[in-house]
Write a structure and sequence with these properties.
With 459 residues, the chain is mainly beta. It contains 3 helices and 48 strands. The radius of gyration is 23 Å and the shape is globular.
């Protein structure tokens, strides 16, 4: 791509683009100031425009400069003055950006741009056998929702590492996403930086009203509780302040998860609502009662992910559901010199996220070694002894049951790593299983805090 001056280069925004049904093979593309090398559809930023479908990129060499984007950009005229707002800043430049379904990126080397690959609302896509070298402030793969929830994505047998002194993670999925298969990747970051390697970042309003009653496929919530909660929030778009009630149909698409009392652990989707009653996508198996509480989540939970047989090294947090993980398997991964496998509770009562815990996550046959020791931190808190932790990272204290059905079985921790479930505050963790794990050459092996119930056996 001929770029000339900065102004000339910015006028050429993308090298190859189309609305779908195209293949790019065996090309080398080198750009400097362009935002994207390959983009689909033509109206990528317009969420009302149709998505692209059937885009394939194979055996390409894609390079975007300057790769040094980020907080140390003062000496680069192109980067100087850019902020963290607007789509012109360093974090929103991508070598490949696809908003579409049935897309494939295979056997490519992608370097720089900020981030290598951006998927928006994508479904049925595969990213396989690539070398992804993220630039300054970027990720190897970053996923956001669009017209649809990202779902049924394969990220397999890729190799990632940074090529800039300041960078973010390897695979970040924001807001929501379901049914990813993340397998046999080799993911490297930089030990000196506290950036998540595989991150699922929850977002949106999550409030947790008590239940008044439930029907076969409905639930009626405590409106007085919601009114009091909404009065303390800067923004709650579903709340009609003048009428002092929930707006009809405003909770459509929210997740409804029972987090306390009868019916605990059942997850449903809201298909419609009145000012006090939710209609759900399917009947309850065990009907909630007035002893129950539900979490209503604007951004649905991250559901059904399989994260297996990956190698992660020199990372901050390694595998990190930052709230709202539901029904995962994390199996056979090897992590060294990393923050470990961190199941984050980031909920906080009387805030916009009253519940942000995690349910039904199995951590099986993983190996953690060479934990990141921080001796200056308070050694009374288990997760602060080492950053080589498998288990809970208690960043918050959700209402109700914060963790349900967390299973840690057949794992090995060694050389300053440990298994830890130590909640903050009054958060409850029920059905927690520690079974057949091996812990060696560390100050602590397994640390269990208050308000944790379950089984500890065969370790």
């Amino acid at each position: 791509m001929h770029y000339g001056s900065k102004e000339d280069g910015e006028r050429l925004e993308v090298a190859l683009t189309g609305d779908g049904d195209f293949i790019v093979e065996d090309l080398t593309i080198h750009g400097v100031y362009a935002k994207y090398l390959i983009q689909a559809p033509l109206q990528f930023a317009d969420q009302n425009a149709p998505k692209a479908k059937n885009v394939t990129i194979r055996r390409c060499q894609l390079l975007v400069e300057p790769v040094l984007r980020g907080p140390y950009r003062g000496t680069e005229p192109f980067l100087a003055g850019q902020t963290l707002a607007g789509d012109s800043n360093w974090c929103y430049r991508f070598a490949v950006a696809l908003r579409g379904d049935y897309c494939t990126v295979q056997d490519c080397t992608i370097r720089g741009a900020g981030s290598c690959l951006h998927l928006v609302g994508s479904r049925y896509c595969a990213v396989q056998r690539n070398e992804l070298l993220q630039g300054h402030g970027g990720e190897s793969l970053i996923i956001f929702p669009g017209q649809t929830t990202p779902s049924w994505l394969i990220f397999e047998e890729n190799r990632t590492r940074p090529v800039a002194s300041a960078h973010s993670g390897a695979l970040w999925s924001h807001v929501r996403g379901n049914f990813y298969y993340i397998a046999r990747n080799n993911l490297e970051l930089d030990w000196a930086r506290d950036n998540e390697c595989i991150l699922f970042h929850s977002s949106g309003t999550r409030f947790a009203p008590p239940v008044r009653e439930a029907g076969a496929d409905t639930v009626t919530f405590d409106t007085e509780y919601v009114a009091k909660w909404a009065a303390g929030q800067r923004s709650a778009g579903f709340w009609d302040g003048a009428a002092q009630q929930v707006r009809p149909s405003a909770l459509k698409g929210y997740d409804c998860l029972v987090i306390e009392g009868p019916g605990l652990g059942q997850l449903r989707t809201v298909v419609d609502n009145t000012e006090d009653t939710l209609r759900l996508d399917r009947p309850w198996e065990i009907r909630p009662t007035a002893e129950s509480r539900v979490a209503l989540c604007q951004a649905p939970n991250f559901r059904g992910h399989l994260i297996v047989d990956n190698v992660l090294h020199h990372t901050g947090p390694g595998i990190d559901p930052w709230g709202n993980g539901f029904d995962w398997v994390v199996d056979g991964n090897r992590l060294a010199r990393s923050g470990g496998i961190n199941i984050c509770d980031v909920g906080s009562p009387n805030t916009y996220r009253e519940w942000a815990g995690n349910y039904f996550i199995q951590m099986l046959h993983n190996t953690l070694s060479e934990g990141r020791y921080h001796g200056k931190w308070d050694t009374r808190a288990a997760t602060h002894i080492f950053q080589g932790t498998l288990g809970l990272d208690p960043q918050g204290a959700s209402l109700g049951v914060a963790g349900l059905g967390l299973v840690m079985r057949g794992n090995r921790t060694e050389s300053d790593c440990l298994i830890s479930v130590v909640p903050r505050g009054p958060s409850l963790y029920l059905g927690t299983i520690f079974e057949d794990n091996t812990c060696t050459t560390s100050l602590s092996g397994i640390w269990v805090g208050q308000n944790v119930s379950g089984a500890l056996r065969g370790n």
